Amino acid sequence: MKQDSFSLDLDVHGGITYGGYSKKYPIESDMERFWLGFDCAHYMDGRDFNLIKELSSKEQYEYSLDMEKRFPLGDEIARTTEYVEEQIMLLVNQLTKEES
Question: Of 15, 56, 91, 97, which is most buried with the most CB atoms under 10 A?
């Protein structure tokens, strides 16, 4: 995967945590595309074990349960699918905003 240095002033949960060119990640494509990403696994982000179980492999779910036992969280907020969708739209709006 080709990595380029870039600097974007984007406001999304936890900031941009991934950026790079790929034909395979996160989805297969005939052409190389530049991908941006963020995550909701930062300090003060909680875990939604039902969602992890629904969307992840059995191994990832069991790993998440093990991490909770080893490093229990307190009152952290588990980000919902709707929250992530809102953050994606926030990111899209920033990327498509026309220069004035």
Answer: 91
Q: Which candidate, 28, 72, 81, places its Cα nearest to that of 50?
A: 81
Instruction: Give 17's contacts (C-beta < 8 A, 6+ positions apart).
Output: 37, 38, 39
- 18-55 residue pLDDT tens: 888 988 877 888 889 888 899 988 888 888 899 899 99
- DSSP assignments along 37-48, one per residue: E--S-STTB---
CB-CB contact of 12 with 38 (8 Å): yes
pTM: predicted TM-score of the whole model, two decimal places: 0.70
Rounded distance between C-alpha atoms, residue 24 and residue 18, angstroms: 15
Spatial CA neighbour of 10 closest among 85, 92, 83: 92
